[in-house]
Specification:
The structure holds 2 protein chains of 2 kinds. Chain A contains 5 helices and 5 strands; from the N terminus they run E-H-E-H-E-H-E-H-E-H. By secondary structure, chain A is α/β, with parallel strands linked by helices. Chain A has a single domain, classed as Response regulator (Rossmann fold), CATH 3.40.50. Chain A has a 5-stranded parallel beta sheet with strand order 2-1-3-4-5, sandwiched between helices. In chain A, helix 1 links the parallel strand 1 and strand 2. About 0% of the residues of chain B have low confidence. Chain B is an alpha+beta fold. The longest helix of chain B has about 80 residues. Helices cover about 50% and strands about 20% of the residues of chain B. In chain B, helix 8 runs antiparallel to helix 9, helix 10 runs parallel beside helix 11 and helix 11 runs antiparallel to helix 13. In chain B, the strands form 4 sheets. In chain B, strands 1, 2, 3, 4, 5 and 6 form a 6-stranded antiparallel beta sheet that branches. The radius of gyration of chain B is 62 Å and the shape is rod-shaped. Chain B contains 13 helices and 17 strands.
Chain lengths: ~140, ~550
């Protein structure tokens, strides 16, 4: 496995055991990770925090996963979201993609599979951020971008 | 759920009754009305005819009577009274006026009732008679004229008497008239064979014989006379009666026009109408019968079809429910599976940190955890297959070269096949055109069919896989030389949970899912038996090029 970059993950899932296990495993692998038990709290944490990738379960009480996705993408468009479907059908996976999710995973999945997907998402974010930075520098220096 | 045949018989009967009432009854009604109106019109016609005849003939008869009276009146006015006192003169007169043999005798009588002269056959009877008391004599003197009723007279012929007196009422001149000629006139008034024409007195006595031979006057005719001066006819069921007064009301000329006779004119018309209506009736009845039977049969068929469809629908519903149930269960299972996976991978994560020297069974733990993860993965594949998708979206679109895909699929099972001594033969068309489809899902189908073929072929068996192009489709066949598919199983082959294998050897979902996937990819999956023995499964896929979509709705 190639050298994994370090990034900050928010795990949003109402299943406590899964949430805590995933965070534990992420931390063990050297990532930063935190959890939220529903979409509302998740949204709040994204707005206030500094997360790179959000792992979002689509079936949840309080705020439907797709709703949460919409709001998160609105609040922080550069934060990538990976959807988890276990209860919902494939369609909500595709619907999520249309709304801007990076990709989706289906339960049950291997931890390594999950980590690969999260880092792919992070990679995309990193490239986006770089592009923006470059553009800003060029602007600052009045160079054609 | 099939109704008894009695029900349909009663339906037929009810329809027939309805048709009967709707079509046939009006037909009969029209026929009846036509017949009656014909009769009514005819009676009016008959009425007119009778009225015309009676009026005309009454005039003639009256005229004849008047002639007789006038003849005598003229004589008494013309000749002096003294003339009639002479027998010889009276004889001369008799000979002069009797030119038609209708005057039987001639008699002159003095005002006091004593006879002056008599010419005729009853000379002996009238000799010395006095007529002073005779009512007719008195009446003649009083009214100046008298006509008697008809009586059977000399030689059995009908006679009546006409008597007049001179203006000064000195004497009476009397003549007996033969009314046979009268009677002849009546024949002309007989409208039809069964009709009648006759003259009756005010009292109802026949003056001329009834042409039909009646001896008594009918009640209707009596009523007619009773009405006196009324000119209106009386209509009964079988005749139209009409009367005209004669001789100042002493006599009545009556015509009885027979209705049945006049109706006989219409007999041919009646016959025609009857025939037409009968034919129409029969046709209508036949049509009603045919339609009723057909309709009832149709209803029966429709009911049967409905019943069959209902059953089929119920069956489909059941299948769908089972499908949904299975999907629901699969969904439920995915969560605990995920947790098992998470826990197992956590253990696997931490085990390498252990010191093998300190942990006696480290190898076992590592192995076990691996196995747990493997089986969780397997379980996940099963639920995902059941839910109709593999690891990715519903249908990927990538260019797939089927021959290559098949080769890859075969490579998965080669070892297994070898261990059972099963030969796998490939019969691929070279340059098979590629198609845009979902490779992984298609591979799932191929794997399923291949495994089934291997199972069917058994030890030392043969499996043949072929590819071909047919029109705009790619055709892939999986054939084995096993026992083939039993006839009764062919229909249920693709039903969920249908399996001929022992319970721990299969879920019965493989073909169900394969069928579903093939359909979703726009193709078809068929099962059958080969002539040379064994089963053959045929997958058809439309050739879709880049940009086209081969997916079904």
């Amino acid at each position: 496995m190639t050298e994994m970059k370090k990034f900050n993950v928010l795990v949003v899932d109402d299943e406590k055991e899964f949430r805590e296990m995933t965070i534990k495993q992420l931390l063990h692998r050297g990532m930063d990770a935190e959890g939220a038990e529903n979409g509302l709290i998740g949204l709040e944490m994204v707005e206030k925090g500094n997360f790179d990738v959000v792992l979002l379960d689509v079936k949840m009480p309080e705020m439907d996963g797709i709703e949460a996705l919409r709001k998160i993408r609105q609040a922080k468009p550069l934060v990538e979201v990976v959807l988890l479907t276990g209860h919902a059908s494939v369609n909500s996976g595709i619907e999520g993609m249309k709304l801007g999710a990076f990709d989706y995973l289906m339960k049950p999945m291997e931890f390594d599979e999950l980590l690969d997907k999260l880092s792919d998402a992070f990679e995309k974010r990193r490239i986006q951020l770089e592009k923006i930075e470059t553009a800003q520098i060029k602007k600052h220096m009045s160079l054609p971008s | 759920m099939e109704r008894m045949s009695n029900y349909y018989t009663s339906v037929t009967r009810r329809l027939l009754l309805a048709f009967f009432c709707l079509c046939l009854v009006p037909l009969l009604a029209v026929g009846w009305i036509t017949r009656n109106s014909l009769r009514d019109i005819n009676i009016i016609r008959l009425q007119d005819q009778a009225t015309a005849t009676v009026t005309a003939q009454a005039k003639v008869l009256s005229q004849v009577l008047k002639d007789h009276i006038n003849r005598l009146t003229m004589l008494v006015n013309f000749l002096p009274p003294s003339f009639f006192e002479q027998q010889g003169n009276t004889e001369k007169l008799f000979l002069a006026i009797d030119n038609r043999d209708d005057i039987v005798d001639l008699q002159s009588i003095a005002a006091n009732g004593r006879q002056y002269a008599y010419v005729g056959p009853y000379r002996t009877q009238v000799e010395g008679k006095s007529y002073a008391e005779a009512p007719w004599f008195q009446e003649t003197l009083l009214n100046g004229v008298h006509i008697s009723n008809v009586f059977t007279g000399y030689r059995g012929t009908p006679h009546f008497v006409v008597a007049v007196t001179n203006p000064l009422k000195n004497y009476v001149l009397r003549a007996t008239v033969n009314s046979a000629s009268f009677n002849a006139l009546l024949l002309a008034a007989q409208i039809s064979p069964n009709s009648d024409a006759f003259i009756v007195s005010r009292e109802g006595d026949f003056q001329t014989p009834s042409l039909r031979g009646d001896t008594t006057l009918s009640a209707t005719a009596r009523t007619l006379i009773g009405a006196g001066g009324s000119e209106a006819p009386i209509i009964t069921d079988d005749a139209v009666y009409i009367a005209r007064p004669l001789a100042g009301g002493r006599w009545f000329f009556i015509i009885k026009a027979d209705v049945a006779d006049s109706m006989s004119v219409y007999i041919p018309l009646h016959r025609q109408i009857f025939i037409v209506f009968t034919i129409l009736f029969i046709l209508a009845l036949a049509a009603a019968l045919a339609v009723s039977i057909m309709l009832a049969r149709h209803i029966r068929h429709a009911d049967q079809e409905y019943a069959a469809n209902s059953m089929q629908f119920a069956q489909m519903e059941k299948m769908a429910t089972i499908g949904r149930l299975a999907a629901g269960v699969a969904h439920e299972i995915n969560n605990p599976l995920q947790l098992i996976s998470s826990q197992a991978s956590w253990i696997a994560e931490l085990l390498p940190e252990e010191d093998p020297a300190k942990v006696k069974n480290l190898g076992e733990y590592t192995d076990s955890v691996e196995k747990i993860r493997y089986h969780v993965k397997r379980a996940g594949m099963i639920t995902h297959r059941l839910l109709g998708y593999s690891k990715k979206m519903a249908a990927q679109q990538e260019e797939v070269q089927l021959n290559e895909l098949l080769n890859e699929t075969i490579s998965f099972v080669e070892k297994e096949a070898e261990s059972h001594d099963i030969t796998i033969r490939r019969n691929f068309v070279p340059d098979l055109p590629p198609t845009m489809t979902d490779g992984p899902q298609l591979q799932q189908v191929f794997l399923n069919l291949l495994n089934n073929a291997l199972d069917a072929a058994g030890e030392k068996g043969e499996v043949e896989i072929s590819t071909a192009v047919s029109g705009s489709n790619l055709v892939i066949c999986f054939a084995d030389n096993g026992a083939g598919i039993a006839r009764e199983n062919l229909k249920r082959l693709f039903d969920p949970f249908f399996t001929t294998k022992s319970p721990n050897k299969g879920t019965g979902l493989g073909l169900y899912i394969s069928y579903d996937i093939t359909r979703k990819l726009g193709g078809s999956l068929e099962a059958g038996n080969r002539e040379s023995g064994g089963a053959i499964f045929t997958v058809r896929l439309p050739i879709a090029r880049l940009g086209e979509e081969a997916l079904s709705r």
